[in-house]
């Protein structure tokens, strides 16, 4: 395993694995526990969850998995604030400062711990000053319930404003071969401020190198615009053209996609949502895939940056109440 040192003016000095395990899609409890244990045994110590993943089931699964492990050896990152209907549909984002402690109270109970290593709003409400939301989390840092503050899906300006209130340890954002939007503004800002990057969507929700692409595209297509869906299909076609390079490296296409993200900087963590023990084992093997400058140039020729477009996030605006409104 490779690690990065999380230390800059933060409340902890933690060596974070550059492969992170996301738990959003873990379903079966026994399989989920086995996957987490395999990840920890392989050197992965970064566990990423959210209070709305599985309506809290993800946090409770992590609690069960860590019963036989030392809590201080694991870094738990938690997102909060998503509002869901009784049908499971996400309909808004609650980033009100007065709601932050309430969300954390339930998270601590489900995780069975008295602190979280990193706490972050799943998304910022543009109608609520980011300073207010981060300020509320900062109060929880002072009280010892939160060790580090993170932020997700923001631009460079919002990151800078948040960091001025309290040092931001990590920014979680979409980043992959098919989505390189952070390279122009957010990534340089994060590096200027000394903020690490947690890249999610590395495999485009499992589409790169995965199976059942048709079913997954159908499901994703219900949540995004037709234009975004077309862009995703184009990106997948380009990704398939990378198979020759993957074969040369004796790697899978998924491992190549992870290796590419890791090759973009030692301050980047690749967050992958492996569901099974065998999947996380294969994911960790991506660390063995070393890409030369020529390899990276070949990849750029196949998937040029200017054609790597955002293509699968919820296509919505957020109103003053935090409610989502489709853009299409």
Automatic annotation (TrEMBL):
Source superkingdom: Bacteria
NADP-dependent oxidoreductase domain sequence ranges: 18-302
GO molecular function annotations of the record: oxidoreductase activity
Gene3D superfamilies: NADP-dependent oxidoreductase domain
Segments traversing the membrane: none
GO CC terms of this entry: cytoplasm
Keywords of this entry: Oxidoreductase
PANTHER family attached to this UniProt entry: AFLATOXIN B1 ALDEHYDE REDUCTASE, ALDO-KETO REDUCTASE YAKC [NADP(+)]
Protein name: NADP-dependent oxidoreductase domain-containing protein
Organism: Bacteroides oleiciplenus YIT 12058
